[in-house]
Design goal:
The complex is a heterodimer of chains A (521) and B (325). Chain A is of the alpha/beta class and 521 residues long. Chain A contains 17 helices and 22 strands. In chain A, the strands form five sheets. Chain A has a six-stranded mixed β-sheet with strand order 6-7-8-3-9-10, with helices on both faces. A six-stranded mixed β-sheet of chain A has the order 16-19-20-13-21-22, with helices on both faces. The longest helix of chain B has 32 residues. In chain B, 50% of the residues are buried.
Chain lengths: 521, 325
Amino acid sequence: MAEPLLQVSGIVKRFTGVLALDRVSVDLAPGEVHALVGENGAGKSTLIKVITGVYRPDEGQVSLAGRPVEFADPLDAQRAGIQAVHQEIGLVPSMSVARNLFLGREPRRRFGLIDFRAMHRDAEGTLASYGIGVDVRSPLRSVGLGAQQMIALARAVSVDARVVVMDEPTSSLEPREVDTLFGVIDRLRDQGISVIYVSHRLDELYRICDGVTVLRDGRVVHQGLLSELDRLGLVSLMLGRPVSDVRAEGVTKFSGGHDLARDTPIVEASGLTRRHVLDDVSIAIRPGEVVGLGGLLGAGRTETAKAIAGAFPLDAGRVTVAGRPLRRGSAAAAIRAGVALLPEDRKAEGIIATLSVRENIALAALPRLSRGGVVSEARIDRIVDTFIKRLRIKSAGPHQPVAELSGGNQQKVLLARWLATEPKILLLDEPTRGIDVGAKAEVQSLIDELAEDGLGVLLISADLEELVEGSDRVVVLKDGTVVGELSGGDLTEEGVMATIAANTVDGAADASHDQVEGGSG
Amino acid sequence: MTASESHAAVPVSRLDRGRILAWLQDYGVYAAIAALIIVNIAITPRFLSLENLRTQLVQVAPVVIVSLGMALVIGTEGVDLSVGSVMALTTAVIPLYLGYGVVPAIVAGLLGGVVVGLVNGSLVAFVGVQPIVATLALFVGGRGIALVVAGGRLKDIYDPDLLSLGSSSVLGVPLPVVIAAVLTVVVMAIVRRTTFGRRLVAIGGNRTASELSGLPVKRILLLVYVASGLLAAAAGILATARLQASDPSSLGLLMELSAITAVVVGGTPLTGGRVRVLGTVAGALLIQLVRATLIKHDLADSLAQMVQAVIILAAVYAARGRAGR
C-alpha cells in the first residue's frame, strides 16, 4: 500500500474517568474504503469525532498526508479536507438544492451578487454526474431522503475532500439509491479520496470496503483486509465471542430450559413492517417461554419490542395478546392488555429522575391503585413494599429519589413498575446493560423465575452468552427482517453468530435488502 | 438528586454546596418571608395591624390563584403566558352578562378561561407546539379580543352581589383570601392525592418514560392548561370585583411574570417534574411583602422590581443544586 493518507495513531480519549478510546490507531491509504465496525459503546462515534475535529484526543496524533494536524473545531477539519456525511444531514431544508450544494461558496457576479444561472448550471452538472436527477431550484426538503443524502455527499466531496467519513449512509436509502451511492464511492476511490465507512450491514461492508477496523470497548481488536476475514469471524469479533468458544457453564444465572413453554402463544406479532426499519417481522411467544432476539446493532430488535408494546409507529402488521388484537400505536392499550416493555435506555425512557422510588414503581399501575381518580396511599405502600422486598431493591427507603440509586437498583425499580401492572408478557430490552455483576445475576435469575410463573418473556441482549443461556429459543434479526430461529441443540453462540453472518444476498450489485428471508435455524 | 453519595468522585465541598442549594430551593422562600416579617416588625410602624395584614392578603389573593395554575403547568415542563390576558378577557365578559345576574356573569367569565385553556392545551398536547409559543399567541391576542369585546372602554360596575365578592368577609377574613386559601387546598389535594396530579408531575419529569408507561399524556396536558385558564379566570373575577370596574386594558398586566416568579421562587423547577403548591403560595407572599415593605418606606416601585429580579436570580441559582447532577 502507498503511504497512508490519513494516519491515526495511539488515540486515547477519556470522559470523566471512563476510557472511551484506548490507544486506537488506524491507517488509511489513498483511495481506500475502510470499514469501521463495532457494537454499542465500542468507541466508533468517539473516534469519528476525534478525526472530524469535534473532540480533541487526550493522547495520540492524527496526521494527514504525513503532516501532523490538530483541529480546533469541525470547520478546521473540513478546511484540511476531512468531510463527514452524517445520518442527520447538516443542510438547510428550506433552501434550494443548488444553494445547499454551494452554500458558503456561491459563484458571484459583480457587487457580490450570487450568479444564480451559473450556480444552477453547475449544480445540475454535478448532480447529474452522481446520477441524481432532481430540480436544483426546488427546496431541499421537497426531494427524497436518499437524494438529500447524495446531495450532502456531493457537497462534501466537491469542497476538496481528501477523506470522507460516512456514518450509516444507507440507513434511509432504497436499494437502487445504495447502488448509486456505491458508484459514487467507487469514483472517490479512483480519485484517491479515502473513505471511512461505518455500517452494520455486513453485505454492504463486503461489497464496498477494502480494509476493516473492529473496535470493542474502546480498543482495536482487529485490523486488516476485509477480504481476509470471513463473515463469521467479523461477527464474532464485533460481539466479542470467540468462534470456537467452549461454553462455560454456570457463568450466567440462568437455570436453563423452561420446558413449561406450553399452550398457544400469549402474544403474536405478525408482519410488523416499517419502511427502512422493520420488514415483515413475525414473532410468537408462549406463556412461560423466554424468546431471545438476536442480531447486530441496528437490526431492528429494539424496534420490534417497541412495536409489540405499541410504542413504535408501523406501516403494517398486527399484534394480538391472548387472541385479541391490539390497537396499533397505543402504548396504553398494550399495557392494559398485559404487555410490559423495559426500555433499553433506562435514563431517557425509564426512570423519572425527579420522583422517588415509590412514585416510580407506582406509575404505570396507578389506575389499579386508585379509585375514582383518587390514589390509595395504602395500596401503593403495600405494592411498593412487596416489590422492594421481592426484587431486593437497595434504597434508603421508598421515599429516596430514584436518581440516587445505582444503575442496577434503578433497573429493578423499573422492573417493579412493570410487575406491578401484573403483565402477561415482559419485553426486556438489554435488562442487564450497565449494571454491576451482582445485580446482573439477580436480574437474570428473576427473569427465570418470572418465566416459570408463566409470563411470556422477550429478551434482547447484546451479550450473546446471556442471550443463549437465558432463552428457550432465539429469533435472529438482520436489517429488519427475521433471518433465522434457533432452539434446542442448535441454540449456541456459534449458531447465532453464523445466522447473523450468513450471506443473505450473494453480493451481486442488483441485490436488494427488502427480500424476505425465510427463517428456520 | 444532587451530587449524591453514590458518586464517590465528587469532592465533599461540592456535595455540601449541592445540599445547601437544594435546601434553599425547598425552604429558602419560607426563611426569606420569616426574615422580612421580622425586619418589618422592627422598622415598619403598624406592620402587624389587622388592617395592614388584610390589605396585603387581599392584594395578593389573585396572584396566588393564578400562580396555582402556573405551578401545575410548569410542573409539566410548560409555561402559560396567557394568564394575564385571560384575566382581561374575563373582566371584559362580565359586564356583558351582568344583566342576567351575577351567576351567569361569573360562569361566562370562567368559560372564557376554559376556552383559552383548551386552545393552549390543544396546541401543546396535540399539535406539539412549544408551550411558550402556544401560549404567546393568546398572551398577545387574548387582550386584543378582550378590548374588542369591551368596546375598548373601562366600565364601572355597580352590581352589589359581584362587588361583595371583593369586599365581604367570612369570620373577619376577606372573601378573596378565603377563596384563594380554599383553591390552594384543592390544588394541593389534586397534586398529592389524584392520579391526575401524580401523572402530570411524571410527565414533567420524563415525558418519554410517561408515554411508554401508558399515561394519557396528551389528555393530561390539555387538562393542565384548562386548569390554568380556569384559575386565571377566577382571579380575574375577584380582581374585577375589587376594582369595582371592568378595565381590560390594564387588568392582569404582567400577571404571567408575577406568577412564574412565585412558582420558581417557591421551589418548583422550570424543568418540571415537581410541583410545590405551598411553596408557590409562599413565593407570591414573598414578592408582595417585598413590594409592600419598599413602598411603605417610600422607596420607588422600580426598586421593588429590581429586588424582585434579585430574588428570581437567587431562586434560579438555587435550582442548579438539583439540576447539576
